[in-house]
Amino acid sequence: MTLDLELMLDLYKDMWLIRAFEQGLEREFKKGNVPGMLHIGLGQEATQAALAAHLQKTDCFFPDHRCHGLNALAQEKHAGSGERIMAELFGKATGVSGGKGGSLHSANPAVGNFGDNAVEGSFMVTVLGVALAWQMRKEPKVACCVIGDGTVGRGEFHESLNMAAIWKLPVFYACVNNGYAISTPVGQAHASADIVDLARGYGLPCVQVDGNDIEHAYEETRKAVEYIRAGNGPYFLEFKTWRWQGVFSGEFRPPDEVKYWKEEHDAIAMARQKVLGDGRATAVDLDTIEAEVKAEIEKWIAFAMNGPMPDPAKATADVYVGWEIDKR
Amino acid sequence: MTATTAKGRTRTYVQALTEALDIAMGKDASVFLLGEDIGKMGGDFGVTRGLFDKYGAERVRDTPLSEAAIVGACVGAAMVGMRPVAEIMFADFLGECYDQLVNNAAKMHYMFDGQFKASIVVRTACGGGFGGGPHHSQSVEGWFLNVPGLVIVAPATPADAKGLLLSAIENDNPVLFLEHKALYRLKGDVPEGYYSTPLRKAAVAREGKDVTIVAAMKMTHEALAAAEALAAEGIEAEVIDLRTIRPYDAEMVLESVRKTGRAVVATEAPKMGGLAAELSATISEECFRDLKSPVTRVAGLDTPIPFSLVLEKYILPGKDEIVKGVKQVLA
User: Fold this and answer.
1) Domains (ranges, CATH) in chain A?
2) What is the DSSP track for A196-261?
3) What is the mean pLDDT of chain B?
């Protein structure tokens, strides 16, 4: 499959935006500028770029904990303010959740980002309600949840697939199978290392995708979103991918595996090879895209660093809608 | 004992709840019901009876045995502007959807900086006294007291059941709506048509000057029975029915205790770490100088709920225990 050049270069840029975002973020985290915990999504760029390409701002997605890149991309694409995702990670008032959510709870419904729930799998049942409401109101929208392979162990996975299937809800399950739940290999944790095998019993379409092949991921995501939007019910995509080493990324990976995923099957390197091999773009074109994106991310980091901290009095705001609680 | 003054008709607590759901669904297309066997069957206790025929399978929706998905679906629907009402058959099953209530519904408005509202109501049947055994009898308010963002409503009368349920559905916060099973057949005056009873407002169920008894749900009736018995001995007990347990009406409780100088708090749940402990601590902190004797807690014993009625009666508190508690603070 070959996507046209303009689209391919857009996706290349999107993937670099995700990678540069995560690399810049990890650098600042190690310097102590980012509080709390951090779950980096490096290596999963193609999957997130494909999702961002097809989900509209009037759809929704529940991002998982490694979706900073997807959050930033949606925020940039639909609101022109990707830097507000960075600011949220720094705990700033200028963040999308006003500094109350952080890495694990960055939300902005205006761009379709319905926020992560840091209890993995929890939003798998929440997404049902969004889909149900849209179905009842006859709004042709797609309610997506981005889950990892580890989430499959949760009861909510099964409650969700079952309910979406019996009611034909417009739910898009985007399962990012990166091979490990922190340190536990997928084949050790689940009855099948192929998640589609576990999902298939619920009777919805289940398709496995090379999550590092942007063209494949883009095309299969397009099919899924079209199927759901047409009112056919839920759809399950399993993106096979792999996350790089990084903070909270697990203890040990076999050297051959590391070599394969980082050197031979890296999403960005593969996309680069594809357009260069076709002779459709030059190395200079691609290097320019990369350099521009990296410079942009540095501006986002500066925006986050220099942004104001939240007013401490805001700590007691919005516990209840319409009711005040005691202040210190 | 209701604060509602409109002319009433006699209805059961269950009928009052059904009327509230019917009125809310008639008024607002965004209100819909989710739960196990709530459709044609009308729910385990008949609260949704007739609503399936009137509003259809889409708005009175039977679900699989998936409590997490029931409450999760409510939260998600609320995120896009709906006002869902879930029925969890027994409060004991709330463990299955605890995460959705505690980590999702209760925190959503806060952690996303006010961008979403979890405007849901989760109705559930709680309480013991009928041989339901360890998993169909518990009083669960203590499980949820320590959860900022959550509202806990617990009506004691048919009139309040209707008015509070209508308020709960209209409110933008997540409400856990506790219905004590022993009250379902209780009859009382229930005004016709629409009315709402304010959340966070307790009610004086009986006025008195010698001692304040604070209670909710079935214990309100036990407290009233105790007050009647005490009156025969010349002791005038004031009974406060909390109606909303979280956030509760501290103002009314403290005002009453300042007047009487004595307080008994009565809950069916075990004493440790529960509503009785919270009320006792707040009264002691705020009214220490007005108190003529220490606050007494009347509560369930620190056990699971046993099946055999003899055993259950032994561990659950009632009128007699409240009378004893009152005499203790008067001694």
Assistant:
1) 5-316 (3.40.50.970)
2) HHHHGGG-S-EEEEETT-HHHHHHHHHHHHHHHHTT---EEEEEE--PPS-TTS-S---HHHHHII
3) 97
